[in-house]
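A.,

Following up on our hallway conversation. Structure tokens first:
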């Protein structure tokens, strides 16, 4: 494990490691899961009660560590980032199903919430989710990243001040996620997602990226400007954000400065 030091500009102020985004380079998912798990454990030890959770292949090694740990989750509330619109929760590609299979059925969380993508009134569902987030501010938020730089289902162009909302998925995201479906036609085209503001409100944010497919998005996020074109780039403004990145996802980064 290696901690990289990046200097970058936010509003014309030069920040260095420790002041803003911290980047932890790991060898692989196994080490990444361990590092993420240690960070999560520290957050819980400090009194964290609300966990923001993500789906996708990225957090699986962390979830495995959580399942095999001796942590007591009985006082912990989990709040997921997003869900497809229109998929039944028993559909094996729904994020409800994913969370159940990869984490919830093994851990004794006090409450677990995933947005309801089948709600008849989706606007109301978004409002309810924002109320939930107000009631339980997230202490520790886990994030993956899309190849286009999305976080949750906040696609490029999503306003930085967005709260929970419904969204049309971009072609890039549909293509990236089609590997889980029988055909591209089966991939839902809409989703409900926590907004970027909601993510930024979390006390600590840990974004994890593995694999070559994420390399360009990570270069843009870390080295590019803060821009709505790359949703994850906003994390450079978060007072406590950490990136866990493996060799392949970090392969396009400039050598550490
Ligand atoms: C989906 C999710 C994101 C996730 C991304 C990456 O689009 N909405 O929250 O970060 O996929 O998935 P993976 O970890 O499988 O690469």
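Then the amino acids I'd put at each of the 257 positions:
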């Amino acid at each position: 494990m290696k901690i990289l030091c990046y200097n970058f500009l936010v509003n014309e102020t030069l920040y260095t490691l420790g002041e803003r985004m911290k980047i932890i380079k790991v060898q692989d998912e196994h080490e990444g899961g361990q590092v993420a798990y240690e960070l999560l454990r520290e957050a819980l030890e400090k009194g964290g009660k609300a966990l923001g959770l993500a789906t996708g292949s990225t957090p699986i090694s962390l979830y495995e560590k959580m399942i095999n740990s001796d942590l007591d989750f009985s006082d912990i509330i989990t709040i997921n980032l997003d869900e497809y619109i229109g998929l039944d929760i028993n559909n094996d590609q729904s994020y409800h199903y994913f969370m159940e299979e990869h984490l919830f059925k093994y851990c004794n969380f006090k409450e677990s919430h995933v947005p309801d993508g089948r709600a008849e009134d989706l606007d109301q569902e978004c409002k309810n989710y924002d109320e939930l987030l107000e009631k339980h501010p997230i202490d520790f938020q886990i994030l993956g990243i899309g190849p286009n730089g999305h976080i949750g289902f906040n696609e490029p162009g999503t306003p930085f001040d967005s709260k929970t909302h419904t969204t049309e998925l971009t072609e890039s995201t549909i293509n990236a996620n089609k590997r889980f479906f029988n055909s591209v036609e089966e991939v839902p085209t809409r989703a409900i997602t926590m907004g970027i503001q909601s993510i930024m409100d979390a006390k600590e944010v840990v974004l994890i990226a593995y694999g070559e497919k994420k390399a360009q998005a990570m270069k843009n996020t870390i080295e590019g400007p803060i821009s709505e074109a790359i949703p994850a780039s906003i994390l450079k403004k978060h007072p406590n954000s950490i990136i866990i990145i493996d060799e392949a996802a970090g392969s396009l980064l400039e050598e550490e400065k």
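The chain has seven helices and 13 strands. Curious whether your intuition agrees with the design.

B.
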